[in-house]
Amino acid sequence: MRNKIPFILCLIGGALMIYAGVVGSIGFWDNLISYAATIAPGYEDIMLWILVILQNVASFGGIAVIVGGYLITTNRVGTGKFIIGISAGMGIFGLIMLVYNMYMAMGMAAFSEIYNLISTTAAILGPVLTIIARTLTRKP
Questions:
Q1: Are the C-beta atoms of 10 and 68 separated by less than 8 Å?
Q2: pLDDT given for residue 62 in this prediction
Q3: Would you tell me how many other CB atoms lie within 10 Å of the CB of residue 87?
Q4: In this structure, what is the dihedral angle of CA atoms 117, 120, 126, 130, given to the nearest 10 degrees?
Q5: Are 66 and 14 in contact (CB under 8 A)?
Q6: Which portions of the chain are predicted below pLDDT 50?
Q7: pTM for the full predicted model
Q8: Is 79 helix (H, G, I), strand (E, B) or coil?
């Protein structure tokens, strides 16, 4: 089996994401749809369908990461990396927003809280492991 280590990382990261309840943000996709409507006014329906598909993939969270991890062990490496990127990318985006909100609320003292949060939570470790697995994945 090729890409064994990335697959194991995806299994662990996906399980942690399922345990922590990490899924894609629906509010983020709504903002993206309204932004897409202003950029390309004649193509809102096509962009809406594409974004709805991406939103559905991201909403599965850890399950989609595990499916993507399985796909990287087959000949569908590109599809697996895409699914992992969409699913785990929303978790990373949520981490960035969390860090920003904590910094705005607490200032520099937030970084000690962020350190404690990162060292003790599965919601951060799951997406980070899956992004590492995605970068370690090699095509046949």
A1: yes
A2: 84
A3: 31
A4: 80
A5: yes
A6: none
A7: 0.70
A8: helix
